[in-house]
Amino acid sequence: MKVLDADFARGFIRMADDGYAMGWHERNGGNLSYRIRENEIDMVRDDLKEGEWKKVGASVPDLAGEYFLITGTGKFFRNISLKPEECIGIIELDDSGENYRICWGFDENNAPTSELPSHLMNHEVKKKVSNGKNRVIYHAHPANVIALTFVLPLDDKTFTVKLWEMMSECAIVFPKGVGVVDWMVPGKRDIAVATSKVMEEYDAAIWAHHGIFVSGEDFDLAFGLLHTIEKAAEILVKVMSMKAEIRQTITSDEIRMIAKEFNVEIREEFLD
Ligand code: 13P
Ligand code: ZN
């Protein structure tokens, strides 16, 4: 089977289109990766090639031998569905988890995203803490999440509670909360290490003055998580822009009631 006929590639491209439509991917902003299942890679094996081994820029031994579908550096999300073979590609990791080679795509000398170290280190952590279920890592530049990083203190508790308070759904969709990473130079190992630490506890890491990383078991869950967080951030930005005192909100006890009703384990230490 051709890679582009496989369900995982179709789901990946659809998610990229949806993210662009949401306005989260100006120019080449953002990147997406999917850890491919063994049976899925077997189905497309005839369509694969073997490129040269290159350094990942991080060490991810628990992902040794795994294959990923991932966006290319400098590529625009709005072009992914038009020219997928140039804008995205499949990479394979070697036995040490320190080198990768291109197996499909990245035509015209393209290469994986500059955030490859962050994607792979996040995949490694998430694979471990989810017992292998988690397969998607998604980075985007949603304006409202970024705007909040200029006016809220950059701590996990403040961001989490402020977002939980904005919509009842938030406590259900991300009961573990969101983590925050201080501003750092993108594309480097240091920001990858900081983000993967946050990902041990949370499914979302907000990058100050830059964007957000989320993870999920599949495309729907990763996209839905980012969508919910950005929607809550948008409401908070609107409320703060009104310059009115908040007269009422969803209280800590009410968040507890939601958690009880929907049977989710809320991060209790963040509540009053
Ligand atoms: P890439 O084009 O290398 O994926 O970088 C985009 C980005 O958002 C960096 O954080
Ligand atoms: Zn970015």
Question: Any chance you could write out the topology, listing elements then pairs?
Answer:
Elements (H helix, E strand, L loop, with lengths): L6 H15 L9 E5 L2 H6 L10 E2 L11 E5 L12 H4 E6 L5 E7 L10 H14 L6 E5 L2 H6 L7 H11 L1 H6 L5 E3 L7 H13 L2 E4 L3 E6 L2 H23 L10 H11 L10
Parallel strand pairs: 7-8
Antiparallel strand pairs: 1-3, 1-6, 2-5, 3-4, 4-5, 6-9, 8-9
Helix pairs in contact: 4-8, 6-9
| SSE string | HEHEEHEEHEHHHEHEEHH
Strand content: 15-25%
Give the biggest sheet: 9 strands, mixed
* Distance, first to last CA: 55 Å
Average pLDDT, all residues: 97
Query: What is the assigned CATH homologous superfamily of the largest domain?
Result: Class II aldolase/adducin N-terminal domain
- Which strand order does the major sheet show? 2-5-4-3-1-6-9-8-7
Proper CATH architecture of the largest domain: 3-Layer(aba) Sandwich
Number of helices: 10
What does this protein look like?
- It is built from ten helices and nine strands.
- The protein is an alpha+beta fold.
- The chain folds into two domains: 1-114, Class II aldolase/adducin N-terminal domain (L-fuculose-1-phosphate Aldolase, 3-Layer(aba) Sandwich), CATH 3.40.225.10; 141-272, Class II aldolase/adducin N-terminal domain (L-fuculose-1-phosphate Aldolase, 3-Layer(aba) Sandwich), CATH 3.40.225.10.
- The structure holds 1,3-dihydroxyacetonephosphate and zinc ion (ZN).
Entry keywords:
272 residues; alpha+beta; L-fuculose-1-phosphate Aldolase; nine-stranded mixed beta sheet; 10 helices; 40% helix; binds 1,3-dihydroxyacetonephosphate; binds zinc ion
